[in-house]
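Reopening this one. Same input as before:
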Amino acid sequence: MSALGKNFSSSVRLKPNHELVKTGPYCFIRHPMYSAYLLLFLSAFFVTRNWIIGLSGTAVILFLMTVRLRLEEALVIGRFGQEYLRYRALTPMFMPRLRGPALQYDNRSDKNLKEAP
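Same output, byte for byte:
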């Protein structure tokens, strides 16, 4: 969450001064928190061998990963347009590329965006 800073929200909304974050874990995948929660619930299932924990937790996060993400991405596209579409085309949704990020950022501006080697 620290990479998001003031942009973090538990609800599906953009803040007035919202910035498109492409640094930290966001240079590897677009939705690291969803990936982390899925891993958490799957791990809890394997550690406890409790089907209720595994199925309920995984079901909740899979719901969020499908339904909520559509709303989130529509909002972000509406605000950031081509900048986000380019980021989305080059950055995987949940699992990072094996050879590193597709993009390198010097800061949060697309002016300093360059393709990774």
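So the earlier flakiness isn't reproducible anymore. For the record, The beta strands are 103-105, 113-115.
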